[in-house]
Amino acid sequence: MFHHMEWDSTDDGLEASMDDSPHLPESSQSMSSTTNNISEHEFSCHCCYDILVNPTTLTCGHNFCRHCLALWWESSHKNECPECREKWEGFPKINILLRDATDKLFSDVVQRRRAEIQENPKISRSLLAFQRYGDNLGRSRTNQHKGAGFFFSGVLVALTCVAVMVLVYHWSSGVVEQHDLLISKPVSHWTPEEVVSWLEQLGPWAQLYREPFQQENVNGRLLLMLGDEELLKPPYSIENQAHRRAVLAELDRVKALGVKPPQNLWEYKAANAGKSLFLLYALKRSPRLTLFYLYLFDYSETFLPFLHTCCPAITHIDRSMESSFLNAQLEPSWRQWGEFLVKYLLLPYQLIAEFAWDWLAVHYWTSRFIIVNAMLLSVLEGCALWRLWTAARIRTLPRKMWNHLWKMLSQGFAFALLWPFVPQFVCNCLFYWALYFSPIINIDLVVQQLMHPETQAL
Fold it and tell me: Where is there biased composition of kind Acidic residues (predicted)?
């Protein structure tokens, strides 16, 4: 890289004029004598206070050594002049006229300093990162119509148009599935068919008891009157204690809520539109803070099933669906808490991926989108930590965490205030965008981080 930064210090025209100065007119000779009286202070850098090497002029007019400016840019993370703090426009270029003048007037000092710069690995890395940042900045401005960015932008626009058309068609048709009605329809108004649908959603084992419920024409009011003794006796005859406990546990939840509790992603979204959108964005931006929020304010309904899904208890290999349902209502063991805390601190996105993996049978493609997105977010978090470590700025991590915490809290408070005024159509568009299109955006970010790990847009 330094071979590209070394410039030809010979200028035949200037040397000839200096060699032939005795033959010049008297005015030219006086100008030459004035040049010889120039002091080094007039060609010094205001960062290192030494002779300018590869002088770079900013838009404010101040000149600095190229490597001094690179070190300042890398340490301050600001595109501004080290002296007057005015932001520069574009990417600073080397002042060729000033460079040639310093090479002519102070050739020995400049050569010595260039040798020192080449031998310093820290300065070399800073210059390389600074140059790559300038290359990326210029490439993004001059080649906006080329590269992966244009491809991904086109894909996003196309997918957005298709998604909006599908959503508009779905909502305009007014077709709502039966299980979506149960999460909003009071249980006392359920028909016998809806009761059978509720029973089937408890698991494959519930198919054994479908026929008795149909024969007895059990509706919502009769369902609320059922207890352990009624389920044990004919005509229901649920003799399996685990099955009977599962039905009673779910029936208690129905009685407490007054409606059917959501049992998959789409039902949860329909019942909790604002919370689902908040969790979708918050788990991406700050998974640890979001899980802590669930622990404090939504322990039994959301956090406890999430923990049991990601860190299941040790059970028999042939565990059934009803036993899994009952285990999700119990307090976690110390082993589960230990496993959860380790993943929570080190690999929070793995928890989300494991949760999505458990729902592959219900949400086939959606779960895969979530798993891929969790992997990409883990890579981006690792790249951010690696930049802090290599740049020796790991000590700034507490301050960054505090700023991030304050930012998330303020955004969450604003979201809670403005959410009731957001139209449902806008909420659904944001939901599907974050769910399906975020992995495509994150792929582009991961590619940029892996190709240019030293650079970071400021």
Answer: 8-18
Evaluate the CA torsion angle 375, 381, 383, 389 in order and state its sign: negative
Token pair of 165, please? 């058309």
Residue 64, helix vs strand vs coil: strand
- CA distance linking residue 13 with residue 20, whole number of Å: 11
One domain for residues 285 and 209: no
193 lies in the same domain as 88 = no
pLDDT single digits (tens) 265-280: 777 877 777 778 788 8
Nearest to 301 by CA among 280, 339, 275: 275
- Is residue 75 a part of any domain in this protein? yes
H-helix or E-strand containing 340?
helix 334-346
221 lies in the same domain as 278:
no
Strand ranges in 79-233 using DSSP code E only, listed in sequence order: 93-94
- Residue pLDDT, tens place only, 171-210: 544 444 555 678 888 888 898 888 888 888 887 888 888 8
Look at residue 207 and tell me if it is in a domain: yes
Phi and psi of 134, rounded to 5°?
-65, -40
